[in-house]
Amino acid sequence: MSDFDGRRVVVTGVGLVSPLGVGTEPTWEGILQGRSGVGPITRFDASDYACRIAAEVEGFDPADYIEPKEIKKVDLFCHYGVAASQMALEESGFLDSDFDGDRVGAIVGAGMGGLPLIERTHKVLLERGPSRISPFFIPGLIINMVAGLLSIRYGFRGPNSATVTACTSGLHAVGDAFRQIQLGFADAMVAGGTEAIIAPLAVGGFTSMKALSLRNDEPQKASRPWDRDRDGFVVGDGAGILVLEERKRALQRGAPVYAEIVGYGMSADGYHISAPHPEGVGAELVMRNALADAGIAGQEIGYINAHGTSTTLGDAAEVKAIKRVFGEHAYKLAVSSTKSSTGHLMGAAGGLESGILALSLRHQLLPPTLNLDNPGEGCDLDFVPHTARPADLRYGLTNSFGFGGTNGALIMAAAGD
Protein backbone atom coordinates (compact mmCIF):
# COMPACT_ATOMS: atom_id res chain seq x y z
CA MET A 1 0.00 0.00 0.00
CA SER A 2 1.22 3.49 -0.85
CA ASP A 3 2.73 5.77 1.77
CA PHE A 4 0.10 8.28 0.69
CA ASP A 5 -2.79 6.10 1.91
CA GLY A 6 -5.51 8.14 3.56
CA ARG A 7 -5.10 11.39 1.66
CA ARG A 8 -8.35 13.35 1.58
CA VAL A 9 -10.08 13.96 -1.75
CA VAL A 10 -12.46 16.79 -2.59
CA VAL A 11 -14.68 17.70 -5.53
CA THR A 12 -13.68 21.08 -6.95
CA GLY A 13 -15.58 21.10 -10.23
CA VAL A 14 -18.80 19.65 -11.65
CA GLY A 15 -19.68 19.59 -15.35
CA LEU A 16 -23.11 18.36 -16.47
CA VAL A 17 -24.66 17.88 -19.89
CA SER A 18 -28.17 16.53 -19.46
CA PRO A 19 -31.68 16.44 -20.90
CA LEU A 20 -32.43 19.38 -18.60
CA GLY A 21 -29.81 21.61 -20.15
CA VAL A 22 -26.26 22.02 -21.37
CA GLY A 23 -24.33 23.01 -18.27
CA THR A 24 -24.25 22.42 -14.55
CA GLU A 25 -26.44 25.37 -13.59
CA PRO A 26 -29.34 24.66 -16.00
CA THR A 27 -29.30 20.99 -15.04
CA TRP A 28 -29.32 21.73 -11.30
CA GLU A 29 -31.97 24.42 -11.64
CA GLY A 30 -34.12 22.10 -13.75
CA ILE A 31 -33.95 19.43 -11.07
CA LEU A 32 -34.86 21.86 -8.29
CA GLN A 33 -37.73 23.27 -10.35
CA GLY A 34 -39.15 19.80 -10.90
CA ARG A 35 -38.79 19.83 -14.69
CA SER A 36 -38.69 16.69 -16.80
CA GLY A 37 -36.29 16.23 -19.70
CA VAL A 38 -38.32 13.43 -21.28
CA GLY A 39 -40.11 13.86 -24.61
CA PRO A 40 -40.75 12.20 -27.98
CA ILE A 41 -37.71 10.72 -29.73
CA THR A 42 -36.39 13.02 -32.45
CA ARG A 43 -33.01 11.39 -33.18
CA PHE A 44 -34.59 8.83 -35.49
CA ASP A 45 -38.02 7.79 -36.75
CA ALA A 46 -39.43 5.81 -33.84
CA SER A 47 -42.98 5.55 -35.18
CA ASP A 48 -42.75 1.76 -35.49
CA TYR A 49 -41.30 1.30 -31.99
CA ALA A 50 -43.32 0.33 -28.94
CA CYS A 51 -41.30 2.92 -26.99
CA ARG A 52 -41.21 6.32 -28.68
CA ILE A 53 -39.91 8.51 -25.85
CA ALA A 54 -36.48 9.34 -24.46
CA ALA A 55 -34.59 12.04 -22.56
CA GLU A 56 -32.56 13.77 -25.27
CA VAL A 57 -30.06 16.58 -24.85
CA GLU A 58 -31.29 19.70 -26.64
CA GLY A 59 -29.32 22.74 -27.73
CA PHE A 60 -25.90 21.09 -27.65
CA ASP A 61 -23.35 22.26 -30.23
CA PRO A 62 -20.09 20.29 -30.16
CA ALA A 63 -18.36 23.18 -31.95
CA ASP A 64 -18.59 25.11 -28.68
CA TYR A 65 -16.13 22.64 -27.14
CA ILE A 66 -14.29 20.84 -29.93
CA GLU A 67 -12.38 22.05 -32.98
CA PRO A 68 -14.67 21.72 -36.03
CA LYS A 69 -12.25 19.44 -37.89
CA GLU A 70 -12.15 17.09 -34.90
CA ILE A 71 -15.91 16.73 -34.40
CA LYS A 72 -16.48 14.04 -37.03
CA LYS A 73 -13.58 11.94 -35.75
CA VAL A 74 -15.45 10.79 -32.64
CA ASP A 75 -19.04 9.92 -31.78
CA LEU A 76 -21.49 12.00 -29.76
CA PHE A 77 -20.68 10.39 -26.40
CA CYS A 78 -17.14 11.77 -26.79
CA HIS A 79 -18.51 15.24 -27.54
CA TYR A 80 -20.60 15.17 -24.37
CA GLY A 81 -17.71 13.85 -22.27
CA VAL A 82 -15.23 16.46 -23.50
CA ALA A 83 -17.78 19.26 -23.04
CA ALA A 84 -18.70 18.25 -19.48
CA SER A 85 -15.00 17.88 -18.62
CA GLN A 86 -14.26 21.36 -19.91
CA MET A 87 -17.12 22.73 -17.83
CA ALA A 88 -15.87 20.99 -14.70
CA LEU A 89 -12.28 22.13 -15.22
CA GLU A 90 -13.37 25.72 -15.82
CA GLU A 91 -15.54 25.74 -12.70
CA SER A 92 -12.67 24.39 -10.63
CA GLY A 93 -10.13 26.87 -11.98
CA PHE A 94 -7.78 23.93 -12.19
CA LEU A 95 -6.22 24.77 -15.56
CA ASP A 96 -5.13 28.17 -14.24
CA SER A 97 -3.21 26.53 -11.41
CA ASP A 98 0.36 25.29 -11.44
CA PHE A 99 -0.08 21.54 -11.99
CA ASP A 100 2.26 18.70 -12.86
CA GLY A 101 0.77 16.81 -15.81
CA ASP A 102 2.40 13.60 -14.62
CA ARG A 103 0.23 13.77 -11.49
CA VAL A 104 -3.12 14.45 -13.20
CA GLY A 105 -5.23 11.77 -14.82
CA ALA A 106 -8.63 10.96 -16.28
CA ILE A 107 -11.09 8.10 -15.88
CA VAL A 108 -14.28 8.48 -17.90
CA GLY A 109 -16.66 5.56 -18.41
CA ALA A 110 -19.58 4.68 -20.66
CA GLY A 111 -21.90 1.74 -20.93
CA MET A 112 -22.09 1.29 -24.69
CA GLY A 113 -19.88 3.96 -26.27
CA GLY A 114 -20.23 4.77 -29.94
CA LEU A 115 -23.26 2.66 -30.81
CA PRO A 116 -24.75 5.29 -33.17
CA LEU A 117 -21.44 5.46 -35.02
CA ILE A 118 -21.48 1.67 -35.39
CA GLU A 119 -24.99 1.86 -36.85
CA ARG A 120 -24.05 4.58 -39.32
CA THR A 121 -20.85 2.86 -40.40
CA HIS A 122 -22.57 -0.47 -40.87
CA LYS A 123 -24.96 1.25 -43.25
CA VAL A 124 -21.99 2.69 -45.16
CA LEU A 125 -20.45 -0.78 -45.36
CA LEU A 126 -23.62 -2.33 -46.77
CA GLU A 127 -24.39 0.46 -49.22
CA ARG A 128 -20.94 1.63 -50.34
CA GLY A 129 -18.50 -1.12 -49.42
CA PRO A 130 -15.57 -1.53 -47.00
CA SER A 131 -13.34 0.97 -48.77
CA ARG A 132 -15.64 3.79 -47.65
CA ILE A 133 -15.29 3.07 -43.93
CA SER A 134 -13.74 6.07 -42.17
CA PRO A 135 -10.24 5.61 -40.73
CA PHE A 136 -11.63 7.29 -37.61
CA PHE A 137 -14.33 4.63 -37.14
CA ILE A 138 -12.51 2.57 -34.50
CA PRO A 139 -10.97 5.40 -32.44
CA GLY A 140 -14.25 7.30 -32.69
CA LEU A 141 -16.31 4.66 -30.90
CA ILE A 142 -14.05 3.10 -28.25
CA ILE A 143 -15.04 3.99 -24.72
CA ASN A 144 -11.61 5.01 -23.44
CA MET A 145 -11.34 7.74 -26.07
CA VAL A 146 -12.79 10.47 -23.84
CA ALA A 147 -10.07 9.97 -21.25
CA GLY A 148 -7.57 9.86 -24.09
CA LEU A 149 -8.83 13.12 -25.59
CA LEU A 150 -8.56 14.84 -22.20
CA SER A 151 -5.00 13.64 -21.79
CA ILE A 152 -4.08 14.90 -25.26
CA ARG A 153 -5.87 18.22 -24.91
CA TYR A 154 -4.62 19.17 -21.44
CA GLY A 155 -1.37 17.25 -21.05
CA PHE A 156 -2.71 14.96 -18.32
CA ARG A 157 -0.18 12.11 -18.25
CA GLY A 158 -1.25 10.47 -15.00
CA PRO A 159 -3.60 7.49 -14.56
CA ASN A 160 -5.75 7.16 -17.67
CA SER A 161 -8.55 4.64 -17.96
CA ALA A 162 -12.22 3.97 -18.68
CA THR A 163 -14.78 2.00 -16.71
CA VAL A 164 -17.23 -0.11 -18.70
CA THR A 165 -19.62 -1.51 -16.11
CA ALA A 166 -23.02 -0.88 -17.68
CA CYS A 167 -25.08 1.62 -15.68
CA THR A 168 -22.49 1.73 -12.90
CA SER A 169 -19.74 2.99 -15.24
CA GLY A 170 -19.87 6.65 -14.23
CA LEU A 171 -19.88 6.00 -10.49
CA HIS A 172 -17.11 3.43 -10.75
CA ALA A 173 -15.05 5.98 -12.68
CA VAL A 174 -15.42 8.55 -9.90
CA GLY A 175 -14.71 5.95 -7.23
CA ASP A 176 -11.65 4.60 -9.02
CA ALA A 177 -10.34 8.14 -9.52
CA PHE A 178 -10.88 8.82 -5.82
CA ARG A 179 -8.69 5.81 -5.05
CA GLN A 180 -5.90 7.00 -7.36
CA ILE A 181 -5.62 10.24 -5.38
CA GLN A 182 -6.23 8.67 -1.97
CA LEU A 183 -3.43 6.15 -2.54
CA GLY A 184 -1.01 8.75 -3.85
CA PHE A 185 -0.87 7.83 -7.54
CA ALA A 186 -2.26 11.21 -8.63
CA ASP A 187 -2.94 14.64 -7.19
CA ALA A 188 -5.97 15.39 -9.34
CA MET A 189 -8.32 13.43 -11.59
CA VAL A 190 -11.08 14.20 -14.07
CA ALA A 191 -13.71 11.49 -13.73
CA GLY A 192 -17.29 10.52 -14.52
CA GLY A 193 -19.42 9.06 -17.26
CA THR A 194 -20.86 9.88 -20.67
CA GLU A 195 -23.41 8.25 -22.94
CA ALA A 196 -25.25 8.86 -26.22
CA ILE A 197 -27.24 5.80 -27.26
CA ILE A 198 -30.66 7.11 -28.20
CA ALA A 199 -30.45 5.11 -31.41
CA PRO A 200 -32.54 2.41 -33.11
CA LEU A 201 -30.60 -0.59 -31.84
CA ALA A 202 -30.47 0.56 -28.22
CA VAL A 203 -34.12 1.58 -27.99
CA GLY A 204 -35.18 -1.58 -29.81
CA GLY A 205 -32.99 -3.76 -27.64
CA PHE A 206 -34.16 -2.33 -24.33
CA THR A 207 -37.76 -2.48 -25.52
CA SER A 208 -37.40 -6.16 -26.37
CA MET A 209 -36.26 -6.72 -22.78
CA LYS A 210 -39.44 -4.98 -21.60
CA ALA A 211 -37.23 -2.55 -19.69
CA LEU A 212 -38.53 0.77 -21.05
CA SER A 213 -41.59 2.77 -20.13
CA LEU A 214 -44.27 2.74 -22.82
CA ARG A 215 -46.05 5.85 -21.53
CA ASN A 216 -45.68 7.49 -24.94
CA ASP A 217 -48.66 9.82 -24.53
CA GLU A 218 -47.36 11.29 -21.27
CA PRO A 219 -43.55 11.34 -21.66
CA GLN A 220 -42.91 13.74 -18.79
CA LYS A 221 -44.74 11.37 -16.44
CA ALA A 222 -43.02 8.24 -17.73
CA SER A 223 -40.12 8.11 -15.26
CA ARG A 224 -41.82 7.53 -11.90
CA PRO A 225 -39.55 5.76 -9.41
CA TRP A 226 -41.33 3.89 -6.58
CA ASP A 227 -44.78 4.81 -7.93
CA ARG A 228 -47.20 1.88 -8.17
CA ASP A 229 -47.84 2.70 -11.86
CA ARG A 230 -44.19 2.66 -12.94
CA ASP A 231 -43.62 0.57 -16.04
CA GLY A 232 -39.94 0.89 -16.86
CA PHE A 233 -37.12 3.39 -17.25
CA VAL A 234 -36.60 6.14 -19.83
CA VAL A 235 -33.29 6.08 -21.69
CA GLY A 236 -31.37 9.36 -21.64
CA ASP A 237 -28.18 10.92 -23.01
CA GLY A 238 -25.59 13.22 -21.51
CA ALA A 239 -22.50 13.34 -19.31
CA GLY A 240 -21.50 14.02 -15.72
CA ILE A 241 -17.86 14.82 -14.95
CA LEU A 242 -16.15 15.80 -11.68
CA VAL A 243 -12.76 17.29 -10.94
CA LEU A 244 -11.25 15.57 -7.90
CA GLU A 245 -8.23 16.92 -6.05
CA GLU A 246 -6.13 16.14 -3.04
CA ARG A 247 -7.65 18.35 -0.36
CA LYS A 248 -4.55 20.23 0.82
CA ARG A 249 -3.61 21.15 -2.72
CA ALA A 250 -7.14 22.32 -3.50
CA LEU A 251 -7.31 24.50 -0.39
CA GLN A 252 -3.87 25.97 -1.03
CA ARG A 253 -4.92 27.19 -4.46
CA GLY A 254 -8.25 28.49 -3.20
CA ALA A 255 -10.35 26.09 -5.23
CA PRO A 256 -14.11 25.89 -4.74
CA VAL A 257 -14.90 22.77 -2.71
CA TYR A 258 -18.29 21.21 -3.40
CA ALA A 259 -17.90 18.21 -1.11
CA GLU A 260 -15.40 15.63 0.09
CA ILE A 261 -15.47 12.01 -1.06
CA VAL A 262 -15.07 9.82 2.01
CA GLY A 263 -16.22 6.33 1.01
CA TYR A 264 -16.44 4.05 -2.01
CA GLY A 265 -17.92 0.58 -2.25
CA MET A 266 -18.21 -2.09 -4.93
CA SER A 267 -20.08 -5.39 -5.03
CA ALA A 268 -21.87 -7.87 -7.27
CA ASP A 269 -25.29 -9.47 -7.06
CA GLY A 270 -24.12 -12.88 -8.30
CA TYR A 271 -27.68 -13.48 -9.45
CA HIS A 272 -28.79 -12.62 -13.03
CA ILE A 273 -27.51 -10.92 -16.18
CA SER A 274 -30.07 -8.11 -16.11
CA ALA A 275 -32.48 -8.48 -13.17
CA PRO A 276 -31.47 -7.29 -9.69
CA HIS A 277 -31.46 -9.71 -6.80
CA PRO A 278 -35.06 -9.49 -5.55
CA GLU A 279 -33.90 -8.90 -1.97
CA GLY A 280 -31.27 -6.34 -2.98
CA VAL A 281 -28.40 -8.44 -1.63
CA GLY A 282 -25.73 -6.79 -3.77
CA ALA A 283 -27.18 -3.34 -3.15
CA GLU A 284 -27.05 -3.93 0.59
CA LEU A 285 -23.45 -5.13 0.43
CA VAL A 286 -22.24 -2.21 -1.65
CA MET A 287 -23.71 0.36 0.74
CA ARG A 288 -22.21 -1.46 3.72
CA ASN A 289 -18.84 -1.52 1.94
CA ALA A 290 -19.01 2.22 1.29
CA LEU A 291 -19.92 2.95 4.91
CA ALA A 292 -17.05 0.77 6.14
CA ASP A 293 -14.66 2.56 3.80
CA ALA A 294 -15.86 5.92 5.08
CA GLY A 295 -15.63 4.77 8.69
CA ILE A 296 -19.02 6.19 9.58
CA ALA A 297 -22.28 4.76 10.93
CA GLY A 298 -25.35 4.52 8.77
CA GLN A 299 -27.14 6.95 11.08
CA GLU A 300 -24.87 9.72 9.83
CA ILE A 301 -26.19 9.54 6.25
CA GLY A 302 -28.84 12.20 5.67
CA TYR A 303 -29.59 11.72 1.98
CA ILE A 304 -29.38 8.98 -0.64
CA ASN A 305 -29.45 9.78 -4.34
CA ALA A 306 -30.80 6.38 -5.29
CA HIS A 307 -30.36 4.35 -8.44
CA GLY A 308 -34.18 4.46 -8.64
CA THR A 309 -34.72 3.73 -12.33
CA SER A 310 -38.54 3.35 -12.27
CA THR A 311 -38.56 -0.40 -12.81
CA THR A 312 -40.79 -2.58 -10.67
CA LEU A 313 -38.10 -5.01 -9.53
CA GLY A 314 -35.20 -2.60 -9.23
CA ASP A 315 -36.95 0.06 -7.17
CA ALA A 316 -38.32 -2.48 -4.71
CA ALA A 317 -34.97 -4.25 -4.29
CA GLU A 318 -33.15 -1.00 -3.55
CA VAL A 319 -35.70 -0.04 -0.90
CA LYS A 320 -35.32 -3.43 0.78
CA ALA A 321 -31.55 -2.98 0.81
CA ILE A 322 -31.79 0.52 2.29
CA LYS A 323 -34.06 -0.74 5.07
CA ARG A 324 -31.65 -3.54 6.01
CA VAL A 325 -28.57 -1.31 5.95
CA PHE A 326 -30.05 1.63 7.85
CA GLY A 327 -32.69 -0.01 10.03
CA GLU A 328 -35.00 2.50 11.71
CA HIS A 329 -32.85 5.34 10.38
CA ALA A 330 -34.09 4.46 6.88
CA TYR A 331 -37.32 6.24 7.78
CA LYS A 332 -35.46 9.35 8.95
CA LEU A 333 -33.14 9.94 6.00
CA ALA A 334 -34.24 11.33 2.62
CA VAL A 335 -34.10 9.21 -0.55
CA SER A 336 -34.79 10.55 -4.03
CA SER A 337 -34.26 9.60 -7.65
CA THR A 338 -33.26 12.37 -10.02
CA LYS A 339 -33.81 9.94 -12.91
CA SER A 340 -37.44 10.99 -12.57
CA SER A 341 -36.28 14.30 -14.03
CA THR A 342 -33.33 13.40 -16.27
CA GLY A 343 -34.23 9.90 -17.39
CA HIS A 344 -31.64 7.16 -17.07
CA LEU A 345 -28.32 8.20 -18.59
CA MET A 346 -27.06 4.62 -18.52
CA GLY A 347 -23.24 4.65 -18.25
CA ALA A 348 -23.32 8.40 -17.57
CA ALA A 349 -25.88 8.12 -14.76
CA GLY A 350 -23.35 7.60 -11.97
CA GLY A 351 -21.27 10.57 -13.10
CA LEU A 352 -24.31 12.82 -13.34
CA GLU A 353 -25.68 11.69 -9.99
CA SER A 354 -22.30 12.01 -8.26
CA GLY A 355 -22.29 15.60 -9.45
CA ILE A 356 -25.86 16.07 -8.20
CA LEU A 357 -24.91 14.64 -4.80
CA ALA A 358 -22.01 17.09 -4.57
CA LEU A 359 -24.36 19.96 -5.46
CA SER A 360 -26.91 18.76 -2.89
CA LEU A 361 -24.28 18.85 -0.16
CA ARG A 362 -22.91 22.20 -1.27
CA HIS A 363 -26.31 23.89 -1.39
CA GLN A 364 -27.93 21.84 1.40
CA LEU A 365 -30.92 21.01 -0.79
CA LEU A 366 -32.75 17.73 -1.44
CA PRO A 367 -33.65 17.07 -5.10
CA PRO A 368 -37.20 15.80 -5.57
CA THR A 369 -38.59 12.58 -6.99
CA LEU A 370 -41.08 13.53 -9.70
CA ASN A 371 -44.27 11.66 -10.55
CA LEU A 372 -44.45 9.83 -7.21
CA ASP A 373 -48.22 10.06 -6.87
CA ASN A 374 -49.04 6.69 -5.29
CA PRO A 375 -46.09 4.82 -3.73
CA GLY A 376 -45.92 1.15 -4.63
CA GLU A 377 -46.00 -1.75 -2.22
CA GLY A 378 -43.18 -1.53 0.32
CA CYS A 379 -42.09 1.89 -0.98
CA ASP A 380 -42.72 3.81 2.24
CA LEU A 381 -39.57 5.88 2.78
CA ASP A 382 -39.20 9.66 2.50
CA PHE A 383 -38.71 9.90 -1.27
CA VAL A 384 -38.91 13.75 -1.35
CA PRO A 385 -41.95 13.62 -3.64
CA HIS A 386 -42.57 16.35 -6.23
CA THR A 387 -40.80 19.28 -4.53
CA ALA A 388 -37.20 20.05 -3.56
CA ARG A 389 -36.61 21.11 0.03
CA PRO A 390 -33.78 22.38 2.25
CA ALA A 391 -31.94 20.06 4.59
CA ASP A 392 -29.11 19.97 7.09
CA LEU A 393 -26.78 17.46 5.44
CA ARG A 394 -23.41 16.26 6.63
CA TYR A 395 -23.13 13.02 4.63
CA GLY A 396 -24.84 11.78 1.48
CA LEU A 397 -24.66 8.56 -0.53
CA THR A 398 -25.35 7.71 -4.15
CA ASN A 399 -25.98 4.26 -5.66
CA SER A 400 -25.52 2.87 -9.15
CA PHE A 401 -26.36 -0.66 -10.27
CA GLY A 402 -25.72 -2.25 -13.67
CA PHE A 403 -26.47 -5.27 -15.84
CA GLY A 404 -24.36 -8.23 -14.89
CA GLY A 405 -25.12 -7.41 -11.26
CA THR A 406 -22.35 -4.84 -10.81
CA ASN A 407 -22.88 -2.26 -8.06
CA GLY A 408 -21.23 0.91 -6.82
CA ALA A 409 -21.85 3.33 -3.95
CA LEU A 410 -20.15 6.59 -3.15
CA ILE A 411 -20.31 8.62 0.07
CA MET A 412 -19.59 12.34 0.22
CA ALA A 413 -19.35 14.76 3.13
CA ALA A 414 -20.27 18.42 3.14
CA ALA A 415 -17.23 20.67 2.82
CA GLY A 416 -15.89 22.43 5.85
CA ASP A 417 -14.65 19.76 8.28
State the end-to-end distance.
26 Å
Q: Report on the biggest sheet.
A: 11 strands, mixed
Q: What fraction of the residues are assigned to beta strands by DSSP?
A: 15-25%
Helical content (DSSP H or I, runs of 4+): 25-40%
- Average of the residue pLDDT scores: 97
Shape: globular
Helix-strand pattern = EEHEEHHEHHHEHEHEHEHEHEHHEEEE
Based on helices, strands and strand pairing, what is the structural class?
alpha/beta
Radius of gyration: 20 Å
Number of strands: 15
- Spans with pLDDT under 50 lasting ≥5 residues? none
Counted by DSSP, the helix tally is: 13
Please provide a written account of the structure.
The chain is of the alpha/beta class and 417 residues long. It contains 13 helices and 15 strands. The protein has helices spanning 24-33, 68-71, 76-92, 115-128, 137-141, 145-154, 169-182, 200-208, 247-252, 281-294, 312-326, 339-342, 349-363; strands spanning 9-18, 21-22, 39-40, 53-54, 104-109, 160-161, 188-195, 238-246, 259-268, 301-305, 334-336, 365-366, 389-390, 395-402, 406-414. The strands form three sheets. Strands 1, 2, 5, 6, 7, 8, 9, 10, 11, 14 and 15 form an eleven-stranded mixed sheet that branches. Strands 3-4 form a two-stranded antiparallel sheet. Helix 3 (76-92) crosses helix 6 and helix 7 crosses helix 13 (349-363). The radius of gyration is 20 Å and the shape is globular.
